[in-house]
Amino acid sequence: MFTVYTSSLHDYAFDCVSHHLFEPYGSDSLRNATDEDIMKQVTLDDSLRNRLVAYYNPGLHKMMGSILSLFAKPRETPLAGNFVMEATAKTGAAQFTLLNRMQDKAHGLDHLDMAAECTDHMVAGIDTTGDALCFLMWEISQPRSFHVQRRLQEELRANPETPFDKLPYLDAVVSEGLRCFPAIPMSLPRLALAEMKTLLRDVYTRFTTIPDESMTEDDMQMSDLLISTQPKATKCYMKLLPLDADKV
């Protein structure tokens, strides 16, 4: 039996997006503690309230900035900044990467422009995928949704070589998860990304997930319904039971 944590899903999301941007210079935060520190610095941000006030009411923010900073420190991400600056300074990125495309002289981008663009993509890709997977896997691990997990396992195990776009139930589960638990709670288009389907396939062809005994429904309430979503308790613990030994 294994336990999956919120940070593991965000590690996975960070590794996916960084390899999309920089392959072979992406992160390995699932196995490398130094890379995981970069992910945590970007993800564990409590300055949202401060930034919202600054954006929507700059006059009020100017008057109350010193008070607001006591409750929400401005985000500083030197580890992430250094990671991106170093990666974008390298050559030889894989052809499919964003870095490879931007280094084409026809685009006329300097190093700082490329780093800024890649940083935006990297930050956006961590919370969205990580949070969406967290809430989706939590929900299908509940008794009320266990029939969904069972049917998903049946489809995945019966079609081990089938492409993602030929697995209708997997697509439906991910799409419904994005509808019910949007990583960005706004009226923006939502896409069932391949990396989400990859992780769900790899987990549910081998395991059954159930909630960890330490978790409660209150822990999994969304903490922010404006720009991003995270579990209120900033944790999401689930147990992975090997299917062959599954007694649930």
TrEMBL record:
Gene3D superfamilies the record matches: Cytochrome P450
Q: Does the keyword Ion transport apply?
A: no
Q: Which UniProt keywords apply?
A: Heme, Iron, Metal-binding
What Pfam families does the database record attribute to this sequence? p450
* Record keyword Iron present: yes
The Gene Ontology terms for molecular function here are: heme binding; iron ion binding; monooxygenase activity; oxidoreductase activity, acting on paired donors, with incorporation or reduction of molecular oxygen
Per its UniProt record, what InterPro entries does this chain match?
Answer: Cyt_P450, Cyt_P450_sf, Cytochrome_P450_monoxygenase
Q: What is the name attached to this protein's record?
A: Putative cytochrome p450 protein
